[in-house]
Fold this sequence. Notes:
Elements: H1 2-23, E1 25-27, E2 29-35, E3 54-58, E4 62-66, E5 79-89, E6 93-102, E7 105-109, E8 112-117, E9 124-132, E10 135-145, E11 150-157, E12 164-165, E13 171-174, E14 183-189, E15 208-212, E16 216-220, E17 233-243, E18 247-256, E19 259-263, E20 266-271, E21 278-286, E22 289-299, E23 304-311, E24 318-319, E25 325-326
Antiparallel strand pairs: 1-13, 2-3, 2-5, 4-11, 5-10, 5-13, 6-9, 6-11, 7-8, 7-10, 11-12, 14-15, 14-17, 16-23, 17-22, 17-25, 18-21, 18-23, 19-20, 19-22, 23-24
Amino acid sequence: MKKIQLLLAALGLAFAHQTFAAENLESGLLGEYFDMGSSLEDFPTIPADKKPVLKRVDKTINFESTQEGFHGTQLVDFFFIRWTGKIRIPKDGNYTFILESDDGSRLFIDGKQIIDHNGLHGMEEKSGDAELKAGDHDIKIEFFENDVDAGCKFLWQPPGATKEIVPASVLLHPAAAATQTGLQGEYYDIGQELDDFPTISADKKPVVKRVDKNINFESTQEAFPGTQLVDYFYVRWTGNLRVPKDGKYTFFLESDDGSRLFIDGKQVIANGGRHHMTEKSGEVELTAGRHSIKVEYFENEVDAGCIFSWQPPSGAKVVVPSDALSP
């Protein structure tokens, strides 16, 4: 009887541990994006004190090759990304993993290198096999871009299945990895009259860089809240939007002067031009989970304000709350 009790207690602890682990994992991998600032021919060594310019959760690694800013970022050349988290294997067996990238990429599972796709090259695939047990396994993917085109895709072929992008449902990260709320705001003093969104050169530094809990700035003729900026400035907010459930979402930007919204790289609202506090909206079908987001805003002169709101499915219109935003 005592042995049975001990066995049941052990099973209970194991179940509790699994439940705890499941409750503290969320979909996607944690991506850390580093601007290296100079030519790359190999994976860089990242000093412990170097901070990423962007830290976000990517639901999948499915980034087509581009010569523009890497999807949802301002990074074009000379950058490095490290994705970390867990991969949930549905059943025991031999799994083939594929990395397609321009330039170099590599994959580690449980600390063991599965794919080495190093060097400067176009969008090319390389694969590796691994015998894996059902359950969660540590995963790390590294990618670097030298110049011109940049892209990275992570695929797999499970036992008895076809090749596909590794789905968000099996990629996980600790919930604590993205607990900070709000969006990363970069504030630029343009110093001259603005009729439209300015082009920000890669070497131009923001005068203020901070996390704004939400975008809820009433119109003012004084300095924009928490800054010394009054006229001729531009703000770029970036991060992730946490969508609570599948459905159609309506977003609103009310601004003086221009503003615009991008979700997962797609423009949802265009509220450009010089104008008083004017509201425009856009609708988009979204799946539950995290989506990359960018809000841009510029002010010419006199009054300045910007408010970002949403109306979730069957919900009321409200300012997008801080707990739905992460930098």
